[in-house]
Amino acid sequence: MLKLDRLLSITMALLNTKRVGAAELAERFEVSLRTIYRDMESINQAGIPIASFAGQDGGYEIMEGYRLERQSLSLDDFASIYSALRGIQSAADNQDVAGLLDRIGALIPAKSDQKAALSMDLQWLSTPAEKEKIRLLHATIKENRLLSFEYMDFHGQETRRTIEPMAIYIKGYAWYVWGYCLTRLDLRVFRLSRINHLQQLQETFIRRNMELEDSPNKWVQQDAEPQVETVLRFKASMKTRVRDVFDPSQIEVEEDGSMKVTARYFTKEAVLKQVLSYGTEVKLIEPQEMVFQLRNHLAAISRLYDE
């Protein structure tokens, strides 16, 4: 982190917190205590009034009454932005986002009753391995470096790809990296969980004047087969779970309390996995070809345990 960025982040951290210790700041910004002391002096010289306190509860704080101008955004705007950034940070563990959180948080008064109407926690989206991939991808994108990796497509075929990475996205419950593929000579979207042996190359590139919206069908082409229309009948005991998973417009309650659900799935495999996950609480009604496949699948499972 550049010194100027660190000074700004420290200032925002102080604006957002009543008092912060030097050791805590040194650990957060990965510098020595001596560097923090010098930074505090620099911030003071810049005209931002900082007071220091000794003792067990000592540390630094910005004098009462000092604040930043919020310009044209309301407190509700800042609270919503802050909440969204916290959600992204919980999933990606990105230091740039952490610094931005400090800066945005500093613009919300500590004593304000303003609360975000929306709260997100995306921590469940990322495994430790994916967080490492995201960190490497983020650094590679910032530096305009080429990226090389092995990619497994929807059908299980592995190929070596080299891309000009442009952005990282969350779609549904998965992370994706989007960029120009030098192997396919076209824009491509790659699912992070299918990427292996990620390598940042020394070669740099000039970012192309393209956006993800320039390739609206890439999501479907690479990550889905023609959608499968299904009809499922759930037992009445599954009422809560059905409402958690499906939209009310998909649910038709029968006279006996059972529920007929009309749903679309991206693949036949997804249908089988979903139905099997509900055990005896659901019956697949349509399509008939999938009913036959399910029967064969169940027979194969039975034979496996008969051996």
From TrEMBL:
User: What are the protein's UniProt keywords?
Assistant: DNA-binding
Outline the extent of the WYL domain.
134-199
List the InterPro entries hit by this protein, alphabetically. CBASS_pafABC_assoc_protein (IPR051534), HTH_11 (IPR013196), PafC-like (IPR028349), WCX_dom (IPR057727), WH-like_DNA-bd_sf (IPR036388), WH_DNA-bd_sf (IPR036390), WYL_dom (IPR026881)
Question: Which residue numbers delimit the Helix-turn-helix type domain?
Answer: 6-60
- Note the PROSITE patterns from the entry: WYL
Look up the domain of life of the source.
Bacteria
A GO molecular function assigned to this protein is: DNA binding
Task: Give residue ranges for domain WCX.
Answer: 227-301
What's the protein called, per UniProt?
Putative DNA-binding transcriptional regulator YafY
Q: Which organism is this entry from?
A: Paenibacillus prosopidis
